[in-house]
Amino acid sequence: MAQVQVEALNRPEGSRVSYSSQEDQQFIDYAIELSRRSLAKGGTPFGAIIVVNGIVVGEGQSRVVELRDPTAHAEVMALRDAGVRLERHLIEDGVMYASSEPCPLCLSACYWARIPRLVFGATTRDVAESGFEDLQFYRQLAVPAERRSMVEDRSDEATRLRSLDVLRSWVDALPEPVVPKL
Ligand SMILES: [Zn+2]
Predict the structure, then answer these.
(1) What is the pLDDT along the chain (182 residues), one digit of tens a residue?
(2) Of 16, 47, 149, 179, which is most buried, counting CB atoms within 10 Å of its CB?
(3) Nearest residue to 61 (alpha-carbon basis) of 94, 98, 90, 93
(4) Environment class of 128 (CB within 10 Å of its CB; exposed 0-12, middle 13-18, buried 19+)
(5) What is the dihedral angle through the alpha carbons of 81, 102, 139, 4, rounded to the nearest 10 degrees?
């Protein structure tokens, strides 16, 4: 599977840290406590925190319904909070603790933030059995675009080139030659 290849390519040898410490237990318990608070406020039961050097630098609860924002998941809210507090968007020194295994959106957000480690409580299967669509979205990503439930229409070539022109302008303005990330 392509996913396994990516993991093998990017994870340094011996960098796997196993879940064991008392610190991990305290932080995942806090993420679960946030999920409980979210539920108590009428939200969905998800909570997440980001920890840097043993300090909580970001907290999030699901606020999708409250904010009418389908991206306001607990992990995303924790990343936004950490970004404001740390005044940076990359958190290469952080650990994400999520009350449940992240959905594809939140997992991708962790990659965008360069978070090197994730600890979670309930699994994607638990979440799916609770009526959330995470597992179905993971399956959507695993199939070719033409087989996904959302129609993805590619524009004509002239339109692609007009859009590409904007991308090229960005690349041309960079101080160093761009490194393609294929
Ligand atoms: Zn999510």
Answers:
(1) 334 344 444 555 555 556 778 899 999 999 999 999 999 999 999 999 999 999 999 999 999 999 999 999 999 999 999 999 999 999 999 999 999 999 999 999 999 999 999 999 999 999 999 999 999 999 999 999 999 999 999 999 999 999 999 999 999 999 999 999 99
(2) 47
(3) 98
(4) middle
(5) 100
The structure's pTM equals 0.88
Cα-to-centroid distance, 148 and ligand 1 (Å): 19
DSSP for 95-162 reads EEEEEEPPPHHHHHHHHHTT--EEEEEE-HHHHHHTT--HHHHHHHHHS-GGGSSS------HHHHHH
101 is catalytic: no
For 43, the token pair is 């939200």
Question: Which tokens hold the place of 144?
Answer: 């070719």
State the catalytic residue, choosing from 33, 66, 75, 129.
75
Name the amino acid, one letter, at 4. Answer: V
Secondary structure element (H or E) that encloses residue 15, with its range: none
Neighbours of ion ligand 1 (CB under 5 A): 73, 103, 105-106
Rounded to the nearest whole angstrom, what is the distance from the C-alpha of residue 31 to the centroid of ligand 1?
A: 14
